[in-house]
Amino acid sequence: TLKWRHLMRPFVMRWSLAAHDICFTCSQHSYFFSLGKCIPVVRGAGVYQDAVDFCIEQLAKGSWVHVFPEGKVNMTKENMRLKWGVGRMIFESPVTPIVIPIWHIGMDDVLPNEPPYVLRLGKNLTFNYGNPIDLSEMVVKLKERNATDVEARKQITDFLQDQLLKLKAETEELHRKNFKGSL
């Protein structure tokens, strides 16, 4: 939903985590996704991996890092536990990032997640951008009480999950209102 000029200015464009086993399987895909500032993340490798370390470095520089906090495409649209790497990035970043929660509905109608992968135009989309979330106070309190890394990651991630689920409900209502009951 950004303007095209953002895509043409790499220093303005966001960094994003992308599954190494999907987006980086051959040299052409690797080149394409690297141009899009995608960082290969290894699913199942945990919160202490190079991709998460790199994101923390980028956040320290004030860069924008976009993540899909479930860590995978949510094919069933069920409520999924967010990955603790999100909590680690926020807790360990020297500058606590502002989180902009986003929920969208309908992208899987435009480009299905299963074959045939054919772009379908004229579908109903709803993008909902929540209010910015400043976790600075929470991070300071966690550090002041010497919370363990695990406690900090869990508290931050749980809080963000609650915020996203509220945004999900709000987005579903917007989608129903704007597209007369479709979901």
UniProtKB/TrEMBL annotation:
GO terms for molecular function: 1-acylglycerophosphocholine O-acyltransferase activity. It catalyses: 1,2-di-(9Z-octadecenoyl)-sn-glycero-3-phosphocholine + 1-hexadecanoyl-sn-glycero-3-phosphocholine = 1-hexadecanoyl-2-(9Z-octadecenoyl)-sn-glycero-3-phosphocholine + 1-(9Z-octadecenoyl)-sn-glycero-3-phosphocholine; 1'-[1,2-diacyl-sn-glycero-3-phospho],3'-[1-acyl-sn-glycero-3-phospho]-glycerol + a 1,2-diacyl-sn-glycero-3-phosphocholine = a cardiolipin + a 1-acyl-sn-glycero-3-phosphocholine. SMART domains: PlsC. CDD domains: LPLAT_AGPAT-like (cd07989). It comes from the Eukaryota. Keywords: Acyltransferase, Lipid metabolism, Membrane, Mitochondrion, Mitochondrion inner membrane, Mitochondrion outer membrane, Transferase. It is a peripheral membrane protein. It is found in: Mitochondrion inner membrane; Mitochondrion outer membrane. InterPro entries: Plipid/glycerol_acylTrfase, Tafazzin. One of its GO terms (biological process) is cardiolipin acyl-chain remodeling. GO terms for cellular component: mitochondrial inner membrane; mitochondrial outer membrane. Residues 10-107 form the Phospholipid/glycerol acyltransferase domain. PANTHER family: TAFAZZIN, TAZ PROTEIN TAFAZZIN. Belongs to the taffazin family. This is Tafazzin family protein.
